[in-house]
Amino acid sequence: MNVEGQVALITGGASGLGAGAARILSKAGAKCALLDRNLALATELAEELGGMAVECDVSDGPAVEAAIAQVVEKLGAPRIVLNAAGIDIAVRTASAKGPHPLDEFERVIRVNLTGTFNVARVAAYGMIGLDTLDDDGERGVVINIASVVAQDGPVGQAAYAASKAGVQGMTLPMARDLAPYGIRVMTIAPGMFETPLAAGIPQDWIDNIIPTVPFPKRWGNPLEFGALVQQICENTMLNGEMIRIDGAIRMGT
Amino acid sequence: MNLDNISVVITGGASGLGAGAAKLFIDKGAKVAIFDRNLDLAQTTATELGCAAVQCDVADEASVIAALAQAGEINGTPRILVNCAGIDITGRTATKGGPQPREALTQQIAVNLTGTFNICRFGADAIRQLDDLEGEEQGVIVNVASIAGLDGPFGQTAYAATKAAVIGMTLPMARDLSAYGIRVVTIAPGVFNTPLAASVLRGEPDDYAGSVPFPKRAGKPAEFASMAVEICQNPMLNGEVIRLDGALRG
Questions:
Q1: With an 8 Å Cβ cutoff, is A237 touching chain B?
Q2: Which of A34, A121, A176, A211 is the least buried, fewest Cβ under 10 Å from its Cβ?
Q3: Bridge partners, B243 (sequence order)
Q4: Which among A179, A182, A243 has CB closest to B247?
Q5: Which residues lie below 8 Å from residue B105, measured CB to CB, with a gap of 6+?
Q6: Which of B141, B116, B128 is CA-nearest to residue B1?
C-alpha cells in the first residue's frame, strides 16, 4: 500500500525503533499515532511529526481498545500497525542468586508477546470493517517486532527470547488468519540497534558484541529499521515472513 | 548504498525478475548492464529500458570474466550484482518411466548454483580492488533463491537442491565478504509472473495463485525489484534470506 495519507499506529512509538519508524512513515505522508506508556515523550515526538500521542499499556486489553478508539476518532482508522513496544531483562534461568524470578518472566511475556497480540487483534478487527484499497483487496498491514535473540539465544535472555520467539511463531498463522480480509502480517527481527531498550544492556557485553557484527560493524540506526518498515508497507508480496535486519550478526557464535 | 550512478549487473536481466529489477535500478539512477545467454532478447530489453546488454553464460567461467570486464568498460566496475539467471527443470526423482536423468541436477547446479557463485566470486574480487567509496559500503550482492528451496514442492528435487544451496551460501558469503564492505542478501520468491514460472507451471502463473494466502495472484517483477532496491539501500540488511511470496508455503 501507498503509506501516504494512511494512519499508522505505532506502539512504543515515543522512542527507539518505534520512533525511527514514525519519522520515516511521517516523511512518507502517513499520520502517526504513537502509543506509549511514556505520554510526555510520545507527545513531544507527536508534536514534532504532526501526529498524536496516546498513553497506553499494550498488555492491558481494555486500555488498548480505548487507545485505538481514540486514534480512530482523531486521525481515522489505522491501516498500518507497528508493534514496537517491548521490554528486556537479563537474568539467568538459575544462578548463585537463585532461580529466575517467575514474575519477571511473566512480565516480559505479558508486554512483548501478549501486548503484541493484543494490539494486533484489536487493530485487525478494526481494519476488517474498512473498504479495500485496491484490486488486490488490501485493507492493512500488521508489522510485529521480534528479535534475533529469539533465534540465536544469548545468555540471560530466556524470558526475552521466549517472548520474541512467540512473536516469530505468530507471524504465519496470523498472516493466514487475516489473509481473507486483505491484511498482511510481517515480523522484523532486529539485531543490535541504538535504542533506549539497548541502553539497559551491560556495557561490557556491548563492548564484546559490536565487534562480532560482520558488516556494518556498528549499531543499527532506527531510521534503517524504519526504511524496512516502509518497504514492508509498500510491497504487497511481503506476507507471513520474518526478516532479520542485523548486519549478519549471529549472537553467541 | 545510494544507487545514483552506481554500476549494476543483473544476470538473467533480459526477462522476468531480472528485467523488472533492471527497470527499477535504472529509475533510481543506477547504470545497469543486463547479462543474459540470449543476447537478442537482452538487447531488445536493454533498448527498451535504456541500459547495456552483455552476452553471458553464468555457468561458464570464461564467459563470466569477459562479461564482467565488458560491463566494467561500459559502466565502470559493478558494485551491485543481482543474480537472477536461473533455470527450472521439473521431474520426479523416479517414476515408472525410470530414474530422473542426472542432467536435470547437473545442468541446474551449473546455472543456478555455480553460475551464481561465479558472478559473486569474480564480481566481489573486482569490487575488492576498487578505490573505496565514501562511507562504509563498497558493494552489495543480491542472490535469488526460491521458496522451493525451503518448502520442497514435488517434481522440484533438483531445482530445490540448487536453490537451497544458494540459501546456504548466503551467510558464509556475507561473512567472507564483510571485511571488504560487501553485503550479501538472498531473496526467495514465491510464484511470480515470469517466463520461467510460466514454463514450469505450463500456464499463466496467476492461475496457480489460488493457494497464496494474500495477495491472491502471482507476484509482479516490480515487487521483486522493490525488495532488491531496498536491500541495496539499507546497509543493515546482510546475511539474510527474505521470502517474498504472499505467505505461500509450497
A1: yes
A2: A211
A3: B188
A4: A179
A5: B157, B158, B161
A6: B141
Where on the phi/psi map is residue B181: left (φ > 0), alpha (ψ -120 to 50), or beta?
left
Write out pLDDT tens, residues B60-88: 999 999 999 999 999 999 999 999 999 99
DSSP string, B7-65: EEEEETTTSHHHHHHHHHHHHTT-EEEEEES-HHHHHHHHHHHT-EEEE--TT-HHHHH
* pTM recorded for the entire structure: 0.95
Q: What integer is the mean pLDDT of A102-112?
A: 97
Q: What domains, with CATH codes, occur in chain B?
A: 7-244 (3.40.50.720)
Could you give the CA distance from residue A77 to residue A82 in angstroms, rounded to a whole number? 14
What 3-state class would DSSP assign to A252?
A: coil
Question: Which of B175, B181, B214 comes nearest A184 by C-beta?
Answer: B214
A32 close to A26: Cβ distance less than 8 angstroms: yes
pLDDT of residue A199: 83
Contacts of residue B222, Cβ cutoff 8 Å, sequence gap at least 6: B20, B23, B24
pLDDT in tens, A62-91: 999 999 999 999 999 999 999 999 999 999
User: Which one is catalytic: A117, A160, A193, A225?
Assistant: A160
Model confidence over B130-157: pLDDT tens digits? 999 988 999 999 999 999 999 999 999 9
- CA gap B119, B67 in Å, rounded: 10
Looking at every residue in chain A, the average pLDDT score rounds to 96
**CB neighbour list of residue A173: distance below 8 Å, 6 or more residues apart:** none
Residue in chain B nearest A221 by alpha carbon: B236
Active site residue A181: no
Domains, chain A, in order of start with CATH, read 7-245 (3.40.50.720)
Does the beta-carbon distance from A246 to B239 stay under 8 Å?
yes
pLDDT at residue A253, as a whole number: 52
Cell of A231: 518497504
- Which pLDDT band, with edges at 50, 70 and 90, does A50 fall under? very high
Shortest CA distance from B220: residue in chain A: A237
pLDDT in tens, A164-198: 999 999 999 999 999 999 999 999 999 999 998 88
Once rounded to an integer, what is the mean pLDDT over residues A194-204? 85
Task: Provide the Cα torsion B215, B219, B224, B225; round to 10°.
Answer: -100
Q: Cell numbers at residue A195, please?
A: 535504542
A40 closest CA partner among A18, A21, A14: A14
What distance in Å separates residue B136's CA from the closest CA in chain A? Answer: 7
